[in-house]
Inverse folding.
């Protein structure tokens, strides 16, 4: 008899952090793809850079905390914190090396070919450009700078997290002759983030665009900041600090104040990475390492400009439209006429929303119309991340001012959005909304809005459930799904959700929704186990699941067991995937692909064959421990048959993608499919095309008609 396999064997799992670095590598691959327009490729380099920053500030920082605390517990792949840090260090250096070789060897020559130049050394400036730069420094930069010398009376200043700085070694001017062994002093100046980092300067030809980086302008003129000194050398550097918020919520009597305090602390956490320009003077580097308490392994020598996020500004520069994708306009949802009564449309039947292919406007309108509708009694909504000038926030405030009962659950712990969330949470309170500041120990990540309306036949509840945030800006960039419904069973569940979030009333049972942290893990396990049971009974069994990340050991072990029983499993996982494919007798029946395209894949969709009685679910949760155990998440079924077919179509198209999909191999690498002889399928482009075709034809005619108002009589 065959020995029972241990599906939790660490050898069957990939380390979470190393898997994330592979994801950032896939983003970088888009920058290396010659078929993509040039400025789009720059955008992808910028994204890899900002991704890496967040990774260090949170993930690497937390591992360092574990090492400091002498935490010895191993992760699901059997690695200790210090082993993970060593592996991360090696892989990050490879990634950064590839990032800069892409920038220096591919993108810069292509920019030059298109008459776009970035001056990376001020010595390369022409006379005219040099005069322009000096004048720009005098007029715009010099008044903002605060040069700081370090000596016996002036200690080393606190260098803020993620800021770009220039370090210099100085020696005091003592006449014309300098003595050997003369004392060298250190100084630093912060490159001001309030000024544009990319500065356009005159070009020698009219069709050319020439830029210089702000740090080069300062470096060229640094002698003007230290008039009594001679500049021995100067070099840009940047520090990355531990920005992981640690809040003891039981001790924090006022969560709002505690988070505000912690945000300030984020600027001064332990230095976990020091980036310096390649070729930095050894004495200068040694001084920085000592003062910042940085170990050798945390120093990154950069072959080019530090912090490539400035490339996003280049992506957005005026003109050069031929070097970008043609912008896509999200199309209207066919079931909802612009300006029509949204509640009447929902009463006709459930409505599927597929962003950014379809516009986010109906979600904004849903709250706006509810705020103005005299029959609406209450609006309840969870908010995790919203845009800076959110129309939803404005509508909620207006609803409260119109005398409606408005309850908003605001998640203050939404990482790197805490500050923004505090600001508008206070605004909502001032408008008269009842604001709930999350739950102790849990992040509220669910996406749900409930409108309670008085109608002729009694009270009716309208619900929006989604996979993405109520953010009108990111809805143009992230792929997400949502459903409008007024089905009674879901309305009852939605009410129970808000009662649970605002008070202590836990429902005995749910009609249709499943919530984390109490019920969701069990639900997913049951659904997977049901497919396993069917496979063991010799019935066809199939699972298709789409999410951002997969790293929950319990779920992965259940998928391994299902695969071993014969369940065909297809996973679409954008980012982290700790599951390994191709292990004989364990994961032979599992395929994993990751789609990295022009839009950020963000929707979560789960399909189970269920012996022909197919079930489809959507929700806010990934298959991660944090989503299943430490967050408030909602999983909702797709009940309408027509919508179910539409959602299954989304999965089918993504499974056919052979252009933007990377396939996980048995050795842990990701590879794109060989496209030779195949019909090319780009799922994102196909969804754009389908959304355009779904809009009634007269709509296009209407939009092309131009109305010219009559001129007023003299």
């Amino acid at each position: 008899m065959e020995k029972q396999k241990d599906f939790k064997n660490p050898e069957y799992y990939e380390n979470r952090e190393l898997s994330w670095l592979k994801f950032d590598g896939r983003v970088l691959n888009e920058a290396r793809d010659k078929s993509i327009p040039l400025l789009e490729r720059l955008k992808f380099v910028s994204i890899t850079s900002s991704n890496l920053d967040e990774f260090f500030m949170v993930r690497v920082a937390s591992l360092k905390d574990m090492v400091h605390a002498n935490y010895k517990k191993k992760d699901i792949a059997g690695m200790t914190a210090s082993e993970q840090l060593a592996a991360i260090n090696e892989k990050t250096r490879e990634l950064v090396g590839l990032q800069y070789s892409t920038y220096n060897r591919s993108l810069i020559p292509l920019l030059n070919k298109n008459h776009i130049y970035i001056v990376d050394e001020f010595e390369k400036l022409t006379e005219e450009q040099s005069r322009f730069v000096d004048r720009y420094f005098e007029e715009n930069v010099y008044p903002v700078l605060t040069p700081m010398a370090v000596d016996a009376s002036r200690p080393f200043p606190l260098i803020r997290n993620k800021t770009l700085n220039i370090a210099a070694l100085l020696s005091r001017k003592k006449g014309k002759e300098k003595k050997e062994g003369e004392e060298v002093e250190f100084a630093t100046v912060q490159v001001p983030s309030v000024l544009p980092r990319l500065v356009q300067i005159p070009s020698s030809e009219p069709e050319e665009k020439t830029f210089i980086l702000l740090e080069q302008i300062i470096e060229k003129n640094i002698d003007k900041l230290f008039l009594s000194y001679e500049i021995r050398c100067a070099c840009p550097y940047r520090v990355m600090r531990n920005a992981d918020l640690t809040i003891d919520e039981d001790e924090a009597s006022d969560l709002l104040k505690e988070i505000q305090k912690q945000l300030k602390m984020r600027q001064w956490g332990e230095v976990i990475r020091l980036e310096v320009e390649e070729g930095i003077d050894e004495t200068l580097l040694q001084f920085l390492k000592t003062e910042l308490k940085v170990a050798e392994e945390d120093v990154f020598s950069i072959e080019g400009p530090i912090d490539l996020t400035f490339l996003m500004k280049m992506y957005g520069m005026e003109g050069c439209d031929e070097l970008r994708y043609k912008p896509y306009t999200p199309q209207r949802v066919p079931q909802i006429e612009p300006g029509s009564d949204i509640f009447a449309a929902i009463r006709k039947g459930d409505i599927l929303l597929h962003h950014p292919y379809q516009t986010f406007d109906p979600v904004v309108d849903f709250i706006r119309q509810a705020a103005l509708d005299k029959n609406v009694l209450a609006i309840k909504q969870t908010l995790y991340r919203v845009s800076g000038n959110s129309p939803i926030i404005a509508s909620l405030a207006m609803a409260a001012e119109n005398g409606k009962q408005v309850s908003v659950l605001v998640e203050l712990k939404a990482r790197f959005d805490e500050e923004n969330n505090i600001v508008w949470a206070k605004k909502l309170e001032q408008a008269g909304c009842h604001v709930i500041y999350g739950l102790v120990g849990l992040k509220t990540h669910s996406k749900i809005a409930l409108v309670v309306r008085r109608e002729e036949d009694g009270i009716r509840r309208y619900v929006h459930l989604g996979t993405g945030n109520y953010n009108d800006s990111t809805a143009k960039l992230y792929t997400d799904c949502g459903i409008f419904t007024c089905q009674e069973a879901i309305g009852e569940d939605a009410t129970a959700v808000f009662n649970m979030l605002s008070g202590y009333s836990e429902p005995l049972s749910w009609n249709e929704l499943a919530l984390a942290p109490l019920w969701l893990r069990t639900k997913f396990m049951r659904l997977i186990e049901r497919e396993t049971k069917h496979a063991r009974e010799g019935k066809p069994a199939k699972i298709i699941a789409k999410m951002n990340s997969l790293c929950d050991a319990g779920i992965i072990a259940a998928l391994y067991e299902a695969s071993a029983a014969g369940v065909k499993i297809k996973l679409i996982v954008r980012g982290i995937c700790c599951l390994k494919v191709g292990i004989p007798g364990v994961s032979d029946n599992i395929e994993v692909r990751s789609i990295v395209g022009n839009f950020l894949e963000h929707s979560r969709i789960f399909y189970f064959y269920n012996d022909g009685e197919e079930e489809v679910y959507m929700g806010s949760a990934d298959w991660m421990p944090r989503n299943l155990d430490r967050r408030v998440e909602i999983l909702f079924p797709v009940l309408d048959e027509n919508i179910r077919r539409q959602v299954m179509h989304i999965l089918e198209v993504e499974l056919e993608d052979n252009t933007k999909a990377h396939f996980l191999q048995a050795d842990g690498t990701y590879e794109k499919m060989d496209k030779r002889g195949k019909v090319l399928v780009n799922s994102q482009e196909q969804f754009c095309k389908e959304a355009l075709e779904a809009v009634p034809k007269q709509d296009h005619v209407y939009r092309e008609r131009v109305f010219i108002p009559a001129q007023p009589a003299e």
